[in-house]
Write a structure and sequence with these properties.
The complex is a heterodimer of chains A (about 170) and B (about 650). With about 170 residues, chain A is α+β, with helices and mostly antiparallel strands. Helix content of chain A is about 20%, strand content about 45%. Chain A has one domain: CheA-289, Domain 4 (OB fold (Dihydrolipoamide Acetyltransferase, E2P)). By secondary structure, chain B is an alpha+beta fold. Chain B folds into five domains: about 140 residues, Four Helix Bundle (Hemerythrin (Met), subunit A); about 110 residues, Alpha-Beta Plaits, CATH 3.30.70; about 50 residues; about 180 residues, Heat Shock Protein 90 (2-Layer Sandwich), CATH 3.30.565; about 140 residues, SH3 Domains (SH3 type barrels, Roll). Chain B is about 45% helix and about 25% strand. Chain B has 19 helices and 23 strands. Classes of the chains: A alpha+beta (about 170), B alpha+beta (about 650).
Chain lengths: ~170, ~650
């Protein structure tokens, strides 16, 4: 955090809409944006796992961002699309799709326009927020992708959800 | 000049094989003690010699220095100046481990840790203690010292023609010489180089030139060393220059390596080394091709053009041929892996003072190279366990009327699209009562659970289970069997155990042949498509009428036998369509047979397995995914897991249904 605020160079962010809120993701971890095609459902998954897609021959999991952030399943609309993110966690290259309600634009932000996240008051979990981006009078939430798309955490949620459904069946 | 790091990588690969070869020969030597076999000793000598030689070529002096002593000892053995004994071979085996450790350090680009250096001193000490060597080593020392006084030489070399084909670059030899003295001039004699238009393609790779050089401040030893590997075939002349006048007598290289010393590959069949990654890429691309050709076939069906159909069929045939030969490239015989265990068996049984002989069957059985790498650890664990827990001490064995020598056998064979590896011993077998007791104590089962013998035996794979009362160095740390099972399941395999008390234990690993491509049988439930590995499917039948959702029991009478079945829609929580009459796919896995109820059968097709990645790792019931010709994704069912879950949850299921 400290490093970012002291850095004077400008950073690029992609802004997008998820429900009523506007978020930003640093552009370095975005591979491409594709339209919402057919997503293959994987059985017994928690709501935020939308399924998997075929991205030119590789199978990529797709996350419903709205469900992941605030537990409400996305309603597919005209501007709904998938942002394909690519980032490294401990030497493993993670490729994952994120469904959002539409992308807005790529903005250039001066490092001095980044501020720390508020202690409370945000709609989403505090550790999902990397920083706040000041944009004129507006404040956007820059997401911490490594946290939001934490494979470890989501895998555990998947396990829980599976076990839950098995229990539900036998109860 | 060729990139040195590339050569070093080749050296490391080669050295690893040589270390294995050396170990094998040493073990062979040990097994025929007190006799000795010249051929085996020669083989071991060659391996040590080649390690030293090629380490020298790539400049790993540390390995050269150490291996030199090992080689010298082997030389004594070869010349019968020293007789092999158990202790000597043990020392040599330790040296072999040491070389291996050095190579590993080089591979990971680490510095040699202090422990290694310390161990090395000890090993050298014990090597030198074999009397003959002491003299040899010191005499060699004096020889070197005698020649320490440097001289000037004129060297003329006629390289043997195929030297470059064999991997010797004259240039690197010259470079080496240059480092051992100061060369004044190097003349390349090109009179024998044919005109470019007269060269046949075969001749292009040959070495046509000769070379002459003058070198000062060098020793004959050093120069000989430079030509060591090509001296036998090439014509090398080294003449000392005294007072700037060449001596009239041309002395031939005095070190004439015997035929055995040649670093030529023994196998006349030309082999090629390919990085595994390139092969993986090829398999991946081939996977894409398979998908596209399936798409092409799909589309052709809608066009109804007979000529086109014929071409497409031809292409499909070719693709499937290419596919099988590509997969063949990755196949290796399991024997090489099995042989490694002779060392494990030897060391473990020595340490535990048991007498065990290893029997290997089905060494020629082939499986995927990547699979081999994944199963070495679990296999090692099982082998050690068998000796530690399974085998009795010789005295106990004699008491129970068994031969003192226990037999541990490794057996591999193919069985309906899987490879089966069995590790069996004729030891004391599993103590069922003790296992049950332990399982109850650890809350793995409730005391009143009725279990068959087989189920009890398989409890040892549950996490946190270990019956060893005392923790030994070898096994019994409680991390054992469940890790074995996890590793095997990670490659879509299964492990089970059968045991007869006082007669022995048999572990069975069942593994898929390859991890890349499967023949699948596609089914659908609601909108979702699933793939069942074809080699597990035995037949498909219609679910008998009136037996659908209204049924209380989930089994049918299949030609006189009871066939339990599961509803995929129920397990995966998918909607059911009452209009569709479901079918049952009968699957078999090992001893288990079960039916899977699905909405529709969509037929066979070949598909590439795409892993679902870390995110879905803990998911059960699905083992992977595959891309269909249409671009859609189908999920591959983890049949063993489904059957396993079913077999272990019938009671809770019955309760749920009643």
């Amino acid at each position: 955090m400290q490093a970012i605020t002291e850095n004077t160079q400008s950073l690029q962010y992609l802004t997008f809409q998820s429900r009523q809120d506007c978020y930003a993701i640093e552009i370095l971890s975005i591979k491409e944006i594709i339209e919402l095609g057919s997503v293959t459902k994987v059985p017994l998954m928690p709501e935020f796992i939308k399924g998997v897609i075929n991205l030119r021959g590789s199978v990529v999991p797709v996350i419903d961002l709205s469900a992941r952030l605030c537990g409400e399943v996305i309603e597919v609309g005209r501007r709904t699309c998938i942002i394909i993110c690519e980032f490294c966690i401990s030497d493993n290259l993670i490729e994952m799709g994120v469904i959002v309600d539409g992308v807005n634009e790529v903005i250039e932000v001066d490092a001095k326009d980044l501020t720390n996240s508020p202690q409370f008051g945000a709609q989403i979990r505090a550790d999902f927020i990397a920083s706040m981006v000041r944009r004129g009078d507006e404040l956007l939430i820059a997401l911490d992708l490594e946290k939001v798309l934490s494979v470890e955490e989501m895998a555990e949620l998947i396990e829980l959800s599976e076990r839950g459904s098995h229990l539900g069946e036998s109860a | 000049m060729v990139d040195l790091s590339e050569i070093q990588a080749v050296f490391i690969e080669e050295a690893k094989e040589l270390v294995l070869q050396f170990e094998e020969s040493l073990l062979a030597m040990e097994s025929i003690l007190p006799n000795s076999d010249d051929e085996i000793i020669n083989e071991a000598f060659r391996a040590a010699h080649t390690i030293k030689g090629s380490a020298g070529v790539v400049g790993y002096d540390h390995i050269v220095d150490f291996t030199h002593f090992v080689e010298a000892t082997m030389e004594l053995l070869r010349d019968h100046a020293l007789n092999p004994c158990e202790k000597l071979i043990s020392t040599l085996l330790e040296c072999n481990d040491h070389i291996n450790a050095l190579i590993k350090c080089l591979e990971s680009n680490e510095d040699f840790p202090q422990a290694l250096t310390d161990a090395e001193a000890g090993l050298l000490e014990s090597l030198k203690s074999y009397s003959g060597l002491q003299d040899q080593a010191s005499s060699e020392q004096t020889v070197v010292e005698n020649q320490e006084a440097t001289q000037s030489f004129r060297v003329s070399a006629q390289f043997y023609k195929a030297c470059m084909v064999d991997g010797f670059d004259p240039l690197s030899i010259i470079r080496y010489i240059e480092s051992k003295g100061s060369t004044v001039e190097v003349d390349w004699l090109i009179d024998e180089v044919p005109a470019l238009n007269a060269v046949t393609p075969d001749e292009l790779e040959l070495c046509h030139f000769r070379m002459q050089l003058e070198i000062h401040h060098s020793t004959r030893e050093d120069i000989n060393e430079a030509f060591e590997f090509i001296a036998a075939e090439s014509n090398i002349e080294i003449a000392p220059i005294e007072d700037d006048k060449p001596t009239p007598t041309l002395v031939k290289t005095d070190k004439q390596p015997t035929k055995n010393n040649k670093v030529k590959p023994k196998n006349p069949e030309r082999m090629m080394k390919i990085p595994a990654q390139k092969l993986d890429e090829l398999v991946n691309e081939l996977g894409e091709l398979v998908i596209v050709s399936a798409a092409l076939e799909d589309h052709t069906k809608t066009i109804r053009d007979s000529a086109l159909t014929e071409i497409v069929e031809h292409i499909q045939q070719l693709v499937s041929d290419v596919q099988s030969s590509t997969l063949q490239l990755r196949m290796v015989q399991i024997g090489e892996t099995f042989n490694r265990f002779s060392r494990v068996v030897r060391d473990t049984s020595k340490e535990l003072e048991k007498q065990v002989s290893l029997e290997i069957m089905g060494a020629e059985t082939e499986l995927d190279k990547s699979m081999v790498e994944k199963i070495v650890d679990p296999l090692t664990h099982l082998v050690r366990n068998a000796i530690d827990h399974g085998m009795e001490s010789p005295a106990q064995r004699a008491d129970s009327g068994k031969p003192e020598y226990g037999t541990l056998s490794l057996k591999a064979f193919h069985d309906s699209g899987s490879i089966v590896i069995e590790i069996s011993d004729d030891g004391r077998g599993l103590d069922k009562e003790k296992i049950k007791e332990k399982a109850i104590q650890r809350n793995l089962i409730s005391p009143d659970t009725e279990l068959t013998d087989k189920e009890i035996a398989n409890l040892i794979f549950e996490p946190g289970f270990s019956t060893a009362e005392k923790v030994s160095n070898i096994s019994g740390r409680g991390v054992g069997m469940d890790v074995v099972r996890k590793n095997i399941e990670a490659v879509r395999g299964t492990v089970s155990v059968e045991s007869v008390e006082h007669q022995g234990t048999c572990f069975q690993l069942r593994l898929p042949l390859t991890m890349a491509i499967i023949d699948g049988f596609m089914v659908s439930v609601a909108d979702a498509k699933f793939v069942i590995p074809l080699d597990m499917v035995t037949e498909c039948i219609e679910l008998p009428l009136g037996n659908g959702a209204t049924r209380q029991t989930d089994y049918i009478n299949l030609r006189g036998t009871v066939l339990p079945f599961i509803h995929l829609s129920r397990i995966f929580d998918l909607p059911t369509n009452p209009k569709i009459r479901p079918s049952i796919v009968v699957v078999k896995y090992g001893q288990l047979r079960a039916g899977i109820v699905v909405d529709q059968l969509l037929g066979e097709f070949q598909t590439v397995i795409k892993p679902l990645g870390a995110l879905f790792e803990k998911m059960s019931g699905i083992s992977g995914s595959s891309i269909l010709g249409s671009g859609d994704i189908a999920l591959i069912l983890d049949v063993p897991k489904l059957i396993h879950d079913f077999a272990h949850e019938p009671e809770s299921r019955k309760l749920a249904n009643s």
